[in-house]
Design a protein that fits this description.
3 helices
């Protein structure tokens, strides 16, 4: 894919189909996953890395939603209502950030999948 990137394409990642994209996509994905992925052999396989990062982001988003939903009940004996509201505001912001990351990683994964279809797998 060269030319115009799809709507929602990450601003800090060059368009797919360019040498810059190929040089930066692994680092970009690693920046969106847990630090331990930097030591993983997955970094050799951008499409696999994208899949794992997307699953991890999906899981973090679900966890953030669950934490938000249960905060009032789980924390009522430990925090004031105002403090719980602060916690929920922080979780809401984190959920919005994760949703944005989820959309970007999904776009990158889709592009990597389309690129890999043009390359025959090893025999």
């Amino acid at each position: 894919m060269t030319g115009r990137p799809p709507v929602g394409w990450p601003r800090d990642l060059p368009p797919a189909g360019t040498d810059e994209f190929d040089a930066k996509v692994v680092g970009w994905l690693l920046d969106r996953g847990p630090a331990d992925l930097r030591l993983s052999p997955l970094r050799q396989f951008p499409i696999a890395l994208a899949r794992v990062v997307l699953i991890l982001v999906d899981t973090a988003l679900e966890g953030t939603r669950r934490a938000y939903a249960s905060a009032r009940v789980d924390l009522r004996e430990h925090l004031t209502p105002e403090q719980v509201s602060t916690v929920q505001s922080a979780l809401e912001a984190e959920g919005a950030r994760l949703l944005h990351v989820q959309r970007e990683v999904a776009l990158v994964e889709d592009v990597l999948r389309r690129q890999s279809r043009s390359v025959s797998p090893p025999a």
